[in-house]
Write a structure and sequence with these properties.
The structure is a homodimer. Chain A is of the alpha+beta class. Chain A has three domains: 242 residues, 2-Layer Sandwich (BirA Bifunctional Protein, domain 2); 131 residues, Anticodon-binding domain (Rossmann fold); 86 residues, Translation Initiation Factor IF3 (2-Layer Sandwich). Chain A contains 14 helices and 27 strands. The first copy, chain A, has an eleven-stranded mixed sheet with strand order 3-9-10-16-13-12-11-26-27-25-24, with helices on both faces. In chain A, strands 20-17-21-22-23 form a five-stranded mixed sheet, sandwiched between helices. In chain A, β14 and β15 form a beta hairpin. In chain A, α2 packs across α6. Chains A and B meet through β2, α2, β3, β4 and α3 of A and β2, α2, β3, β4 and α3 of B.
Chain lengths: 516, 516
Amino acid sequence: MERGLNATREADFANWYQAVVREADLAETSPVRGAMIIKPWGYGIWELIQGELDRRIKATGHQNVYFPLLIPLSFFAKEATHVEGFAKEMAVVTHHRLAVIDGQLTVDPEAKLEEPLVVRPTSETIIGDAFHRWVRSYRDLPLLINQWANIVRWEMRTRLFLRTSEFLWQEGHTAHADREDALAETLRMLEVYRDVAERCLAMPVVTGEKPENERFPGADATYSIEAMMQDGKALQAATSHYLGTSFAEAQNIRYQSETGELRLCHTTSWGITTRLIGGVIMTHGDDDGLRLPPMIAPQQIVIVPILRDRPEDAEVLAYAEGLAAELSGVDAFRQPVRALVDKRPGRSADKRWDWVRRGPPIIVEVGPRDVAAGQVTSIRRDRLWGENERIASTGAPRSEFIAGAAALLAEIQSGLYAEAKARLDGNIRADIRSFDELAAYFGPAAEDDDANEPFKGWVRCTWSKPSGAELDVVEQRLKSLKLTIRNAPLVQPTALGPCLFTGKPGVEEILVARAY
Amino acid sequence: MERGLNATREADFANWYQAVVREADLAETSPVRGAMIIKPWGYGIWELIQGELDRRIKATGHQNVYFPLLIPLSFFAKEATHVEGFAKEMAVVTHHRLAVIDGQLTVDPEAKLEEPLVVRPTSETIIGDAFHRWVRSYRDLPLLINQWANIVRWEMRTRLFLRTSEFLWQEGHTAHADREDALAETLRMLEVYRDVAERCLAMPVVTGEKPENERFPGADATYSIEAMMQDGKALQAATSHYLGTSFAEAQNIRYQSETGELRLCHTTSWGITTRLIGGVIMTHGDDDGLRLPPMIAPQQIVIVPILRDRPEDAEVLAYAEGLAAELSGVDAFRQPVRALVDKRPGRSADKRWDWVRRGPPIIVEVGPRDVAAGQVTSIRRDRLWGENERIASTGAPRSEFIAGAAALLAEIQSGLYAEAKARLDGNIRADIRSFDELAAYFGPAAEDDDANEPFKGWVRCTWSKPSGAELDVVEQRLKSLKLTIRNAPLVQPTALGPCLFTGKPGVEEILVARAY
């Protein structure tokens, strides 16, 4: 039986992931170590995610801006905790000219910068410097901005989309008069992220607060959305940080209150990256390639005309193009349906497999018989296989197919969500009471990050929320099993048992898992 | 008489430009030398330009992608001519880590990169490297891609939007089977740029080919759109390059033809940058600030409620918000009208002036009398002043104002274009026949680039299209007057006189001007 990929999730999940990225033509490694080339199909997904998120960022009162890529080194020295967290992984510009010396193109030693410039690993420092100038009085608050930008963080082990030295993201930065307002903002944007992940990416998540040791460097609180991949591991899909007043203090962001006092601002930051595309792959991909939720599919309906270098080809092509045009006149998810006729040369069976791997929700094949009968034969990518190991296709009168297209796309969108939601809900164990049980359940961790491990899912357990040295002990014990605390879900039970780690009275429930 | 700015175009154009950028709150200089912070109002303009251009780039068959920011130094060594043109102005990453040494945050000397990485000054080299891998056969051609990205070119003298060390742009890169197809692409994208400049930015341009000495480094032909600023200088607003086969040769981009031969591709590249915003300012700004063409105005109708801390405030605010909601339900230029209620605290007269400086096409002030009469009092930003040195406002019944809003915006859009078009057409002298006349007309150039010079406009003259050393002489003579050849317009007369520089028979007409 022909399949879309030469790799399966079961046999080797990491290898399967690479195969999907390659065969769905999403991205490739570049000659620059750790940086990727995002190809049209992958970038198209990112543009749709951007569109959905950008609309929501604006609807919640934020405005887009653009800050410089290169940040003076001295800016990082101002905020000690922050430096500590990022100091090990930044690209540093030290020269501003190349020169030909002894016939070789080289860095011009005479063009050394007085102060090195860091390629932004995140923009709190340079945006905070502007906030210092922009904020004068309580009337200027809240100050709500966002930017779409590229980020560089030197990474030793990279994996396309999931961890790359350069990635694309949005970073929101806001300043508020008090803790309450800043915390409300932090949670508001977490909720926006949850909505985009679940509604658009059909990727169910758990919203919650990160433990102290997993906070953004310098933050008072970090919240995340965590999604479960098909190998049971967790993917942190977005974070939202309440930064307290520490960044404001380091950068002197103060405002005059209504009563005339000079007060420190409370700031927040929050971001989502191209890593999300990795999450989509590992949530919805199958052994034939990618399956895209319709809302973020660059093409929702791909029409493959079956051409045989015969006179009837013209009619087949005209029928396919007429169908695409009519579909573009229909709205799905409040936007015109994205329909494409694949007119490339080549065998239609090869083209069908190419699209199966790329994962548009619906694939239509048009042959002379469809034209004659005025019908449309379509394949649902989310339900590819029918009986007898054959690809399942459905025939419908053309007008009926067009009239039902939007509803079918909506059904596929919610079906993919339901499938992923069932996986998430069904694979969080809540019956583990001791660290020994935890260790027995997850078993020893493989040395190699890419090694295939049995599906375990997550564990939801109670802890006493230790901090400092006591937390370090918990972290190290979990680390020995390659486990981390993902977050403490926002929705908590009313009664709690004792802490799994310390035996003390429980303070909250947390999610423990292996993660990307 | 109160005016929007403390600067006039007449008194000091450079100073006026800075005042508009500042007072319209478009951008500001950053702590990073030569890089700017694009503020919400400026970035909003850029987003609208992006939207209009992106739609056209896709409609002409291109797909968006994303390539790495950092390019290995060796890539630049491959293409000698290209290096020559850019070698003097690149930011170079030499290290990948910071470290605290002797208590000081500094570049970690142990983290020196084996090969320096250049922050992209343009992406031909790294995209060409991918084209080498992606192109196999004639079936893969044309290969049509585009990316929206940030660019760094070290600049010594910078001016916000016009020349900055970092800027935003799109760069299109394409590969074709032959010269004819590549040249057609180059001119197709030039036409897209003309359309966006004239239709959306209301900025008339002349399309034409750059002389040999002004070509993109390594290109066979460079085309530009040139716009006339209100001080008579030219602004190169976009370029489109036919790169011949030289980049393909340097990077080995070859394809197998239908007859089985291995052939070099012909490539193109084309770009438009945030510099366009500088062009909008210098085309449409006046002594009260910016005037925005409605198609690229982040807000098209700004409603200022006149609030006086009295009970009727609530009614005024409700009326203003109802008006904004109704306007948002109307389409202008095929998109919902962008209407904003300015609810910030502060005197309404101050807020009105603030908006006059920022330049939305229509400003509405709502007071209790408007509410009582059910009318709308509006100011057209393009016709700000009425009789007796008073700001001109027009009253209309509310329903009439809403029904006429789209037409009014269209009228303002075409009015701004007509005004700029008349300036361009009326200020190209075509009666200058010798270099002496040219020198006498333009007069000696000021030493300081920012010095205010009398309005001269452009000169259209005939030349023999010299090349090599002969062209160098022409270039130097023009340079002594701070003049450059802008382009040879695509539309040429049928008969030509002798060359203004050499006296030889004329080959084509060119535009000569001082420029940004």
